[in-house]
Amino acid sequence: MSQNNPIPPDLLRWATDQLPGLDQVTDVSWPRADSRVWRVTAGAEVTFVKLSPSTGDYEREIRGYAYAARVLAPHEAPRLLAADPGLQTIMTSPQPGRVVRDLPLQPEEERHVHELAGRLLRRWHDHSDPTSGQDPESIRSSMADQAEEAASCLDSTAAHLDNKQRAMVQSVSRELPQLTEDLPTVYRHGDYSTRNWLWSPQHGHGVIDFAMSGNGIAIEEFVWLCAAVWTPRPDLKAAYLAGYGRTLSDTEERALRLLATRLGVSYLNTGLTEQNPVLIQRGHLVLTRMTHEYQ
Q1: Roughly what angle, to the nearest 10 degrees, separates helices 250-274 and 163-179?
Q2: Coil, helix or strand for 245?
Q3: Of the N and C termini of the chain, which has fewer Cβ atoms inside 10 Å?
Q4: Where are the domains of the chain?
């Protein structure tokens, strides 16, 4: 077996029970503390084993896989093969393609990938079940929490912001809760960023990782893309929304800008607290984009 971050013994025993003949385990986790994923093989048979960091993540992922199996084709999303709630672990099928994040794509191909990503997400959203009676209050609470987070971050980052940036962060805390009622809600993937997109010229676009799936505001799916990708590449936003099948309303555009600002000031605050220059730079970049470049 080839291991960097060794799979825990109880997970290895469970995986061996699910996949007789298991002969290799390879750590394929993202470089962060809460990512624990292994590629597990038995001869030519390949599966993935994931250890959820919390009960909530595990339960959301189980529901997300069930939803994906209902609304997406087999080449568009992996399938859940086995699960153990006691271990909070799942085993899933492999998915064709390579992770899009940092994949060297030519501009035309990149636009095509974004268009297909928007098209898949629209199908995902269109199959949403009606939200439960508790969801509207939960969604309002989430927006209020993000507004409060922005206000809290402003207290500790104000000295590092220019006047436009400070005003924009203040707008998050003031406006975001008021916009919530006018924003469409759906069953969200929850982390629909390029690190969870797979691209194969033969099979097309696919998506992985459903640990953050659940009911919420539709445009929350676009926040990372807005902050990290679309501002310098409006052609990618246009391609994505063409695939999604509709433009965003003025209210959605404003809320998207506010949510991306919240993300930026959160990056900056965390970076300053942890003395992490990468997060500090990322936070400044997002805030600069939201106040000067975003259209």
Answers
A1: 120
A2: coil
A3: C
A4: 9-92, 98-293
- Return d(Cα 137, Cα 189) in angstroms, integer: 20
Whether 210 and 64 have beta carbons less than 8 Å apart is answered as yes
Dmax over Cα atoms in the chain, in whole Å?
Answer: 62
Amino acid at 62: I
Centre a 10 Å sphere on the Cβ of residue 79 and count the other Cβ atoms it contains: 13
Which H helix or E strand runs over 55?
A: helix 55-71
Whole-Å CA distances, 91 to 76, 88, 118, 148: 17, 11, 27, 38
Q: Is 64 helix (H, G, I), strand (E, B) or coil?
A: helix
Q: Does domain 98-293 have CATH number 3.40.50.620?
A: no
Instruction: Please state whether the predicted TM-score (pTM) of the whole model is above 0.85.
Output: yes
Class of domain 9-92: alpha beta
Each residue's pLDDT expressed in tens, for the chain with a length of 295 residues: 344 788 999 999 999 999 999 999 999 998 887 889 999 999 999 999 999 999 999 999 999 999 999 999 999 999 999 999 999 999 999 999 999 998 999 999 999 999 999 999 999 999 997 655 557 888 889 999 999 999 999 999 999 999 999 999 999 999 999 998 889 999 999 999 999 999 999 999 999 999 999 999 999 999 999 999 999 999 999 999 999 999 999 999 999 999 999 999 999 999 999 999 999 999 999 999 999 854 4
